[in-house]
Every structure is written in C-alpha cells, then in structure tokens.
Amino acid sequence: MRIGDTVVFDNWDDSPIPSDAIVTLHAGVAYPLTVEFRRTGYWVSMQLGWEFEDNVRHDYEMAMSAAREADLVIFCGGHTRWTEGEGFDRTFAMPAKVENMLLETLAINPNTIVVLTGGGNVDMSNWLDRVKAVLHVWYPGQEGGRAVADLLLGKANPSGKLPASFETRWEDRSSFDNYHDDDGDKRVQITDGIFFGYRGVDRDHTQPAFPFGFGMSYTTFAYENLRFSSPVMRRGETLTVLLDVVNTGMRSGAEVVQLYLGDDVASLPRPIKELKGFAKIFLQPGERQTVEIQLTERELEYFDPACGWVAEAGKFTVLIGASALDIRLQASFEFGG
Questions:
Q1: pTM of the entire structure?
Q2: What is the pLDDT of residues 159-169, one digit of tens each?
Q3: Is 66 left (phi over 0), alpha (psi -120 to 50) or beta?
C-alpha cells in the first residue's frame, strides 16, 4: 500500500500479520491511496483503518499513569484474532507493542500479574521471572471476563492442566527444524516421529517453561499408596491401577491425576513414558479419595512397522504425576503369558 509515492505497507511475502505505520499528513492536502492486492490462498481478506497518533499516545500515557498509581496491575495481553488464526503462522512472542507495554508496566509497578490470551504458548523469557503470576486463559469467549475475575478473586479454584509442553525457547520444540521450507519446494518433513511434546522433553532433557499436564491450584494434593489389582498382567486381561489422593489444603478443588507408562525393555526405541490414562477428581479440604485407572493390553502396545501393533512381554513401570515432570509415585508390574 502506498500513500502518494511512499510505500507504507509491504506484505507481498504472504505475511498475514497486521502492519501499522505512522504517517504524517498535512491538513487540506489530498493524498492518493494505492492498494495492490492479490489472492494467496483459499480465502483472503483485507482491512484498512486509521487513528490519530495523539489519541493512541494519550491512551497509552493514561494506562501508564494508572499502573504507576495502582496497588496491583492486571495486565491482559497475548494474541488476538488479528495476530493468530488458522491458515497462517504467528510469532512465538507476543506482538512487540504488547510486550513492550508489559515491560514498561513492570518497570513502574512490579506488582503485576499477566492474563495471557492465545491458542498456545508464547515466549515469556523477557518477563516471566518479573511478574507475580500468569493466568493463561486461551480464548475464553463471551463470558471469559467473568470467569477470569472469579479465578483472580478466589471465588473459583483453578483446575486446568496444560494439554501441551510450553517450551522456554521456540528452538526447544521437537519439531522446530520442521517448520522451514529452506529449498522452496513447498514441502516440509516431520522428523521428530514419536518423540514430540513431553516425549521429546524426556529424551532431550530440555527444561520447559511449563511441562505438559501442569496446572496450579489454591489448594494442595498428596498422592499416596500406589498399588495394582495384580502384580502380573496377562494377555487379554485388564489391570486396575489404584492410588489415594488427599486434599491437604484449605480450599476445595479439582485435581487431574495423570498415569504415564514406561516400557522398560522394547525391541524398538520408545519414549521414556507415555500418558495412558487420567482421572479428574473433586475434593473438599482434608478429603481422601481412591482413584482407579484401567490399563488394557492396548495401552501397552506400540507400532512396529514390520508387523503392526505389538505388546511385548516384560516389565512396565507406572508413573503417577500431577504433570509430566511432577511424578509423585511409581511402581512396576510384569506383562505376558
């Protein structure tokens, strides 16, 4: 897009991220506006808007003034439908202007928490150790504000668990090298195989910002007394895994108990552990509940390209955790026969 002879926006490289620019226009002068637009995919759209820079600066200064005088700042940032969506990639970090505003807020009021929107992880390395708390709310919808307020004010107890590993750096992602089409042939190859997500974290010993299955609560839970319905699981049978969970805090709350399984001896390379079951329970303060999770032969199988799905006889280790990196209990059983 050009105003007069000046190129203001140039997204000809198919970049879908919105652009903005500061342009000085003089009163009473007519400026020709030229837009060159081409279709690059299955659907395309274009929107153009403008706002007086003085208004933007005024609103920004008002926000900073409020942050300076406040006892506590609740900073709502992250991505929106303008910077994230299906059919295009987004930046790993928050939009630069949003992150810069957060950093400036922290400089004048370190008593700041972040309510983060987005469809996944964002780069928090520049500010995570400086904020009091982070509440990742994804895209919570029309009543999201009410739900966030209830969580922040303690009217509701958080009970969500991350469905993905939140890496500290984009480069730590197991599929990082698979994003780039360096030779321009419009093809990329996924090379991390079965070692994606928390499986790659275990293999590569990377340290995520937040592991798969992570989630905080206003209460605490203790895991106790892991046991099996039998020390041996035979082919075609079901093994029941049992443990006790106790709410050791002062608030009622929900916990998601996660069962991971490790194949101690396998003919092919295997992940250190794989999620094979989970159970969500609701407990009052001091309440104890026995959790039962069933394992069948199907949960013990892996795919061998030479012969299909197989479950090899041998020792398997059950790991019970509050996240993929917070393993509380573990024990082994024998399979076969």
A1: 0.88
A2: 999 999 999 99
A3: alpha
